[in-house]
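Ticket #4471: structure output looks truncated?

Reporter: J.K.
Steps to reproduce: submitted the chain below (79 residues) through the standard prediction queue, then opened the result file.
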Amino acid sequence: MNAETPPPASPAAERRLDEHLALLRTAGSQSAATSLVRRVVRTARVQKLVRAALQVAGTIAAGVRDGIVGLLGVRRRSR
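Returned output as attached by the reporter:
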């Protein structure tokens, strides 16, 4: 922990920040929200497809491993 406290913000800086935030609130907020929703939905759909494919590949790989282990008769050592 630092014992020093940050200097208080000046009223001019706060006023400028409020002006910038007001501009951001009014500038295309509806179109930005719509495009964000579209991107999130598109990403979720792609991830759902990739997840399903990876689950199938994992199941096949586990089956192949189990088959090889069964054919070779390899057993785990107990400690």
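Triage note (M.O.): checked the attachment and the full token line is present. The helical segments are 11-26, 29-72.
Status: closed, working as intended.
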